[in-house]
Amino acid sequence: QTVVTQEPSLTVSPGGTVTLTCASSTGAVTSGYYPNWFQQKPGQAPRALIYSTSNKHSWTPARFSGSLLGGKAALTLSGVQPEDEAEYYCLLYYGGVEVFGTGTKVTVL
Amino acid sequence: QITLKESGPTLVKPTQTLTLTCTFSGFSLSTSGVGVGWIRQPPGKALEWLALIYWNDDKRYSPSLKSRLTITKDTSKNQVVLTMTNMDPVDTATYYCAHRPDMVQGTYDYWGQGTLVTVSS
């Protein structure tokens, strides 16, 4: 069974920068896995942020960016705002089967 | 404006079959490339991808749940139905449906609000 692993938690100061990563148990993550990133706040449905590694939706704030880093998918938050405190999930595509990551809780402190 | 809404029972008994309906507006499941997926989230846990159906009736399932899941669409009613057999307490979760705009790029851009299903006798 494929497992997609994320950091359980990260803490960042307001205005700071933090990078979340998304690793696959099958090996290096490439653009062919079409990495997606979602933000979820308590009691809310997930909100799409990034698709196909680095593409932003029309509503995605400019401070969010996606990339590939060291064989993993990565989400970087630059100039973090208090409202960015949330759980973040990646999603990888395995040729018709899709797997969400374990999630990263980002705390802004 | 794209909207999706999940509906179905809030409580099911173990061994029963769950049937959830996703009713959507703002897009058509007869449009090339478009799909609707189902994702669930047990309380306090991570998201889990369940199934996806495309405009051309191509269906994809989570390998670990494939034997229990069936996804269908009714294009005329703008609905997608997910059935899950042999429900167990571990299936207690909020179930979401979501819109896939493009078969190639593979994202879920719009989500329903979710519906909490509790499995208990």
Would you kindly provide a brief summary of this structure?
By secondary structure, chain A is mainly β. Chain A has strands at 4-6, 9-12, 17-24, 36-40, 47-51, 55-56, 64-69, 72-78, 86-94, 97-100, 104-108.
Largest interface: A-B, 24 and 23 residues
SSE string of chain A: EEEEEEEEEEE
Strand element count of chain B: 11
Given the helix and strand composition of chain B, which structural class is it?
mainly beta
Q: Largest sheet of chain B, if any?
A: 7 strands, mixed
Tell me, briefly, the overall form of chain B. globular
Structural class of chain A: mainly beta
Largest sheet of chain A: 7 strands, mixed
What is the average per-residue confidence, as pLDDT of chain A, rounded to a whole number? Answer: 97
What fraction of residues of chain B sit in β-strands? over 45%
Would you report the number of β strands of chain A? 11
**What integer is the average pLDDT of chain B?**
97
Note the total helix count of chain A. Answer: 0
Summarize the structure in words.
The complex is a heterodimer of chains A (109) and B (121). Chain A contains no helices and 11 strands. Chain A has strands at 4-6, 9-12, 17-24, 36-40, 47-51, 55-56, 64-69, 72-78, 86-94, 97-100, 104-108. In chain A, strands 2, 4, 5, 6, 9, 10 and 11 form a 7-stranded mixed sheet that branches. Chain A has a 4-stranded antiparallel sheet with strand order 1-3-8-7, with no helix packed on it. The model of chain A has no long low-confidence stretch (mean pLDDT 97). Chain B is an all-beta fold and 121 residues long. In chain B, the strands form 2 sheets. In chain B, strands 2, 4, 5, 6, 9, 10 and 11 form a 7-stranded mixed sheet that branches. The mean pLDDT of chain B is 97.
